[in-house]
Amino acid sequence: xxxxxxxxxxxxxxxxxxxxxxxxxxxxxxxxxxxxxxxxxxxxxxxxxxxxxxxxxxxxxxxxxxxxxxxxxxxxxxxxxxxxxxxxxxxxxxxxxxxxxxxxxxxxxxxxxxxxxxxxxxxxxxxxxxxxxxxxxxxxxxxxxxxxxxxxxxxxxxxxxxxxxxxxxxxxxxxxxxxxxxxxxxxxxxxxxxxxxxxxxxxxxxxxxxxxxxxxxxxxxxxxxxxxxxxxxxxxxxxxxxxxxxxxxxxxxxxxxxxxxxxxxxxxxxxxxxxxxxxxxxxxxxxxxxxxxxxxxxxxxxxxxxxxxxxxxxxxxxxxxxxxxxxxxxxxx
Length: 333
Known about the structure:
Layout: E1 2-6, H1 26-33, E2 37-44, E3 47-55, E4 60-64, H2 65-68, E5 73-77, E6 83-92, E7 97-102, E8 124-129, E9 137-151, E10 157-164, E11 176-179, E12 184-191, E13 197-201, H3 202-215, E14 220-229, H4 232-237, E15 246-251, E16 265-267, E17 274-276, E18 280-284, E19 287-288, H5 292-302, E20 308-315, E21 318-325, E22 327-328
Antiparallel strand pairs: 1-14, 2-3, 2-5, 3-4, 4-7, 5-6, 6-7, 8-9, 8-11, 9-10, 10-13, 11-12, 12-13, 14-15, 14-22, 15-18, 16-17, 18-19, 18-20, 20-21
Region (Disordered): 1-25
Protein name: Periplasmic serine proteinase
Pfam family, one: Trypsin_2
């Protein structure tokens, strides 16, 4: 995996709508949420497709970038049944988030607030959207895991992803994954097997969407490394006491980490061997790095291109700190 992420200028999210505690009552949750969820009809040169979204502020709907990709005509329908003209104002292929401006919003419909904290595994959630075009659908389940990652274009991944067993089907993409207090914990994106769905976290929405509204795009930090997890065999090969962190196995030529981080040499075959003499990253700016997801999440949520981060690494069994000035992710291929 080649890591990179973004951080745009700090922009306050929209003020949360007032919501009442539902105490696990899905009927109440539906009544307070469904009107703020939209169905999107997208015309492209290849045909017509549908997706979902939710009201972020009085003029903008958040959805997935892949839902509106290539749109030549876009209409948005809320629960009042009227079709409204939508205009794509910004997309980000690296988080699969997009923002659509609508020409009007039904009276009394309020934006959905974003969750201020990371959801907990086991926490009840509900997925809203229009699976297979069935508008106003709610499904429910729990948060199955957090800090997951999803692959996107260019060999990168979306970090800080929420895993859920709430059913997510075609047409749900872009709709909100909502906790029982009515706050959005994620944006539904993908289903990868029975009872395994993924949503882009509210923290990424808060990070990316304001910049899409302001500028139409967002830049992402780029380190330019490929890493593998540190297993016991990798730890032994690199003189580590514990199997923790991620081992650098490749640096991008002339990239930010080139000449700063040391990539390992493979012993055995690349499929069955382990890297030796590799820098092993265990922290970034003092924050522990146990996995690839930890590094990618930190870069995306807390850095921007041009900033310098401090990486704590083990090299030849010795602990040291190196500084890397972050670049900007290349355009997706």
